[in-house]
Amino acid sequence: MRLDAKQVVDRHKSLAMQKRDDTDDTKSMMTMNFVGETIITSKVAAIDDNKSLLEFFSLPSSPLLILRGSKNNKVVEIEMIDDELLTQYKESCERTGALSPSEDDRIFDVTTSGVKFPGMEVLSLVTIGCKVAIDNNDFPKYELVLVRDTTFARGNRLFVWFFNKVTGKDKDETTSQTTFSLNRISVVPEQSGVAFEANASLNLLIKFPSLLMKAIPGASKEKFEKTGGKKLCFMCLVVHTLYVLISYVLLLTTGESMVKTLEDDLPTALELFRQEYINWLSS
């Protein structure tokens, strides 16, 4: 039996931590690769043979319902797409396994309300490419690809300082993309109509000083990537420097916060999308 969006998830791939061994020899930095994935399905909606699903998916306002999400994110379409942005879009599509960009794709700037950590909130301005495509069953689908993002933190001054250190926000130099996301919104045929399904993945690379990992008793990169550091909570309390403590808190909460963000946002966004589709059918 398929669970609807209010029941949160039809299938939830629990947090997967994929190993990545990128080391900066000059600064002794290691890169932690946190990956959150989730699949959520809406309730069923009726269909009308006189109105095509592709027509609804192609309406200018339809993808905005997904992009605004449950927190009513601010969404602004980018009218002038320069070569640099187009190149970034192509690279992000390749990285995430999305279809190649076309001239009909639209690109939006989305200001999100942020992810909350203990003592700190991380806010983002993300640029997302939106493609309307046809799947193997001749149903329309969206591919929403994160092209670039700018993040900033607010809250506890010490936590914010550390966040800026870890992410390189305290430097003026250009940094490489560290967040990658692909969200496919597709149609699922049902006996009484159709449902809408979101298959979303969110990947975050965080650089972490390898020296600090050694300072946490019993800690290892593999354990953090596999469990998010849950089993090391008590050990962290005996570490004598706040620098190590903050590092631990950030690593502990990142992966789970990513998955929670996906789970909190997508059901509401899908339900808004479904309701708008129903209203469109009756208009």
What would you note in describing this structure?
It is a single chain. By secondary structure, the chain is of the alpha+beta class. The protein is 34% helix and 33% strand. Strands 1, 2, 3, 4, 5, 6, 7, 8 and 9 form a 9-stranded antiparallel β-sheet that branches. Helix 2 runs antiparallel to helix 8 (242-282) and helix 4 crosses helix 8 (242-282).
Spans of at least 5 consecutive residues whose pLDDT stays below 50 are 1-26, 227-258
For the secondary structure, the number of strands is 9
The top-level CATH class is: Alpha Beta
Mean pLDDT: 75
Largest sheet: 9 strands, antiparallel
Q: Do you know the CATH architecture?
A: 2-Layer Sandwich
Order of helices and strands: EEEHHEHEEEHEEHHHH
Look at the helices and sheets and give the structural class: alpha+beta
The helix count comes to: 8
Q: β content, as a range? A: 25-35%
In percent, how helical is the residue content? 25-40%
Using the alpha-carbon principal axes, give the shape.
Answer: elongated
Rg calc: 20 Å
Give the total of domains: 1
CATH topological fold name = Alpha-D-Glucose-1,6-Bisphosphate, Chain A, domain 4
Q: Ends: how far apart? A: 31 Å
Q: How would the blueprint of this fold be written?
A:
Layout: E1 16-17, E2 23-24, E3 29-41, H1 53-57, H2 62-68, E4 74-77, H3 83-96, E5 106-117, E6 120-134, E7 140-155, H4 157-167, E8 179-190, E9 193-209, H5 210-215, H6 221-227, H7 233-236, H8 242-282
Antiparallel strand pairs: 1-3, 2-3, 3-9, 4-5, 5-6, 6-7, 7-8, 8-9
Helix pairs in contact: 2-8, 4-8
